[in-house]
Specification:
about 280 residues, about 20% strand, 13 strands, alpha+beta, four-stranded antiparallel β-sheet, Endonuclease, Chain A
């Protein structure tokens, strides 16, 4: 799916839409670019000329590389360079786009490696490719930092039950070894969620919404839950591998009922005493 056009390796918007499983095809791609047009200069994406469209059409035996727009008119397809693909995965902000973009980036890298090993001996060209690799890495690092910053604070409004539920699942799936959940109002909703986790889960709760019989029946099948009754906590927390601490503004069984936020706690002066307190409670129990 990667073509050589104007001395650049590019991929068609229609092919990206197919790879990203966009429900509305290239419309989703074009909307994302339009909303963030300042992030897509011409060296990131551009429209093919009539001649370039025909060359692809004839060279690869495709029926038509023109895209129908409003009023029945046709426009030549848009293509994305490697930088454009990286930028697009950031603005689409879906798990599918991020995962597929990794494979696309690898394909670009393999193409450049092939060119360098088989066709290019000129040191000047090699230096351009090396600089290009550095720019791509810098761009990807920027995306990673933007994504990390975005995930530190999440705000959910009334009715956003599914979105907030997905965010909790995303946090829990980060765990490699263990999960600690502090929630005084935990009930069978939590059992349903952690039944899908293959990690050890410790629940610290003060209420009796979860009965011993429910916990025992759960552990007869899944064997991954330890419940500690404790009344020291007012707020809700999720601790991942005793390294990442999330403050949850709502009990898990009330997600989306009212406005709340999910925040990651990074300051050691806050995080370390909290983890130490939790470790003490678990040890005593």
């Amino acid at each position: 799916m990667i073509y050589e056009i104007r001395g650049k390796q590019v991929i068609l918007a229609s092919d990206l839409a197919q790879l990203y499983k966009c429900s509305n095809g290239t419309k989703d791609i074009n909307k994302a670019v339009k909303r963030n047009i300042d992030r897509f200069p011409e060296d990131f994406c551009f429209y093919l000329t009539d001649e370039e469209s025909k060359n692809i059409w004839f060279q690869f035996g495709t029926k038509n590389y023109q895209v129908e727009t409003r009023g029945g008119k046709f426009k030549n397809p848009r293509v994305f360079t490697e930088e454009g693909v990286a930028m697009l995965s950031g603005v689409l902000n879906t798990e599918k786009a991020k995962l597929v973009s990794v494979d696309i980036m690898r394909a670009f890298v393999k193409m450049r490696k092939f060119i360098k090993e088989n066709l290019i001996e000129n040191n000047y060209i090699n230096s351009i490719l090396l600089r290009h690799d550095c720019e791509i890495k810098e761009l990807q690092d920027t995306f990673d930092k933007m994504e990390e910053k975005e995930l530190k604070n999440k705000l959910f409004f009334n009715g956003e039950v599914f979105d907030s539920y997905l965010e909790i699942i995303k946090i829990l799936n980060k765990a490699k070894k263990e999960i600690i959940i502090i929630d005084n109002y935990a009930d069978e909703t939590l059992l349903e969620i952690i039944s899908k986790m293959d990690k050890e889960v410790t629940l610290i709760t003060s209420k009796k919404l979860l009965k011993d019989i429910d916990i025992n029946k759960y552990n007869k099948q899944y064997h991954n839950l330890k419940v500690i009754k404790n009344n020291d906590f007012h707020d809700r927390f999720i601790i991942i591998d005793k390294e990442f601490v999330y403050h949850i503004g709502s009990s898990i069984n009330h997600l989306g009922n009212k406005i709340f936020s999910i925040n990651i706690i990074e300051e050691d002066i806050v995080k370390e005493p909290l983890i130490n307190k939790i470790n003490m409670i678990i040890k005593i129990d």
